[in-house]
């Protein structure tokens, strides 16, 4: 792949996700099945807007199916899955539509709370959508009106998955087919932190004294669609909230509003300033502790602690009528640790949201700082 990100004089090559591999393998196999001849390249569109031209390998023509693989390339972000082969076997069915299955090396979901159904393959929503759209494109272009059965397999995934968090999350037998953008962006820590500093320097150069900060795309979507904020001056911190807070003080910013998903923001309540899971994962612990401080039984505390996602945590807190007090106490701790990091030198605030439950809470200065970042068209209509 020849897509690069430039940072501090370096070109870092991007890669593509297991979801993109599964999509390309599925499209290639379906094309060969319906056209009856081998192809040497397959083109897919990714959600990020990057077009990929990939080579199908390990092609196998059967009596009523075609199977092939795409080799994953993680670019300059090599990980445990770099170089693996992601296979797709496609066969015709009499049932209309696209039926998607997981084969060997694709994990099976055994616990609730994830984006995939219990008992089904760990193929996340974006790759599912990518595969379905790609195959609908193929069937339409070939004039085929029947159905297709697609089985995704990652033979080496059985062993590789043991090195990941999948077993802990209740995903057994293999890897998850992942990717929200279809593209793997280089994750060199220095490069990422340098990029954050560059973004902040640009804001400083524009005489912007009030920072609007997100961990990633989820926060930006929420801020634009729900809070009606202007994102033109936003900064993305990835997992590096500590470095961002330090640099905000150094640059002399006056305020900083952080908006993020519960799974990220909640870690700040324990003083964790690098939110990557390889450093710490205290999301459920902080909610369990506060719940028991406010009357939850030991059993409920254990149930919260053992939850796979923060959405499951909120579901339990609502059931126990503890959501308001627990979330507020968590936010108070977040406020404390943010102010501790900046030594009280700038005004900080945080807003916590869930993709399922919406806005969950905010720290004391959040409403004031939100008004600084409202879109002009929204402010005009509010007058």
Give an overview of the whole structure.
- With 383 residues, the protein is of the alpha/beta class.
- Helices cover 39% and strands 23% of the residues.
- The protein has 14 helices and 20 strands.
- The chain has a five-stranded mixed sheet, with helices on one face. Strands 17-16-18-19-20 form a five-stranded mixed sheet, sandwiched between helices.
- Strand 1 and strand 2 form a beta hairpin.
Helix content: 25-40%
How far is the first residue's CA from the last residue's CA?
50 Å
Note poorly predicted spans.
none
Can you give the mean pLDDT? 90
In DSSP terms (H or I, runs of 4 or more residues), the helix count works out at 14
Radius of gyration from the alpha-carbon trace, in angstroms: 23 Å
Structural category is alpha/beta
Task: Note the overall shape.
Answer: globular
- What is the strand content? 15-25%
Strand order, sheet with most strands: 6-7-8-12-9
Count of strand segments? 20
Largest sheet data: 5 strands, mixed
Short overview:
The chain is α/β, with parallel strands linked by helices. Helices cover 39% and strands 23% of the residues.
Question: Could you outline the blueprint of secondary structure elements for this entry?
Answer:
Layout: E1 4-7, E2 10-13, E3 15-16, H1 18-35, E4 42-45, E5 51-54, E6 57-61, E7 65-71, E8 85-93, E9 98-102, E10 105-106, E11 108-109, H2 125-142, E12 147-153, H3 157-160, H4 166-169, E13 171-172, E14 174-175, E15 183-184, H5 189-205, E16 210-214, H6 217-225, E17 234-236, H7 241-251, E18 255-261, H8 262-265, H9 283-293, H10 298-305, H11 310-319, H12 323-342, E19 347-354, E20 358-362, H13 366-372, H14 376-382
Parallel strand pairs: 9-12, 10-14, 16-17, 16-18, 18-19
Antiparallel strand pairs: 1-2, 3-15, 4-5, 6-7, 7-8, 8-12, 11-13, 19-20
Helix pairs in contact: 1-2, 5-7, 9-10, 9-12, 10-11
């Amino acid at each position: 792949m020849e897509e690069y990100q430039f940072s501090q004089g370096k070109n870092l090559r991007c890669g593509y996700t297991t979801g993109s591999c599964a999509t390309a393998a599925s499209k290639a196999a379906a094309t060969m099945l319906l056209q009856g001849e081998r192809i040497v390249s397959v083109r897919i569109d990714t959600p990020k807007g990057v077009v990929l031209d990939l080579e199908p390998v390990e092609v196998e023509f059967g009596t009523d199916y075609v199977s092939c693989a795409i080799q994953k390339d993680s670019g300059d972000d090599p990980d445990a899955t770099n170089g693996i082969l992601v296979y797709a076997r496609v066969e015709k069915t009499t049932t209309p539509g696209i039926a998607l299955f997981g084969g060997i090396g694709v994990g099976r979901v055994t616990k609730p709370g994830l984006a995939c159904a219990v008992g089904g393959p760990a193929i996340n929503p974006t790759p599912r959508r990518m595969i379905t759209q790609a195959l609908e494109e193929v069937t339409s272009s070939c004039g085929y009106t029947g159905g297709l059965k697609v089985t995704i397999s990652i033979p080496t995934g059985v062993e590789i998955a043991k090195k990941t968090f999948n077993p802990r999350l209740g995903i057994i037998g293999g890897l998850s087919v992942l990717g929200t953008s279809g593209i793997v962006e280089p994750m060199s820590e220095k490069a990422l932190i340098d990029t954050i500093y560059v973004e902040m320097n640009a804001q400083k150069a524009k005489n912007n004294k009030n920072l609007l900060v997100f961990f990633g795309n989820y926060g930006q979507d929420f801020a634009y669609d729900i809070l009606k904020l202007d994102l033109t001056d936003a900064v993305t911190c990835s997992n590096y909230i500590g470095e961002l807070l330090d640099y905000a003080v150094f640059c002399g910013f006056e305020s900083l509003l952080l908006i993020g998903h519960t799974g990220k923001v909640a870690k700040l309540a324990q003083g964790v300033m690098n939110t990557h899971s390889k450093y710490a994962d205290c999301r459920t612990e902080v909610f369990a502790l506060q719940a028991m401080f406010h009357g939850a039984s030991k059993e409920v505390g254990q149930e919260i602690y053992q939850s796979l996602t923060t959405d499951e945590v909120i579901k339990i807190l609502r059931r126990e009528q503890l959501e308001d007090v627990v979330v507020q106490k968590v936010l108070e701790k977040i406020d404390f640790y943010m102010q501790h990091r900046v030594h009280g030198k700038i005004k900080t605030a945080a807003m916590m949201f869930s993709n399922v439950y919406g806005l969950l809470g905010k720290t004391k200065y959040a409403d004031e700082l939100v008004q600084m970042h409202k879109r002009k068209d929204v402010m005009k209509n509010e007058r």
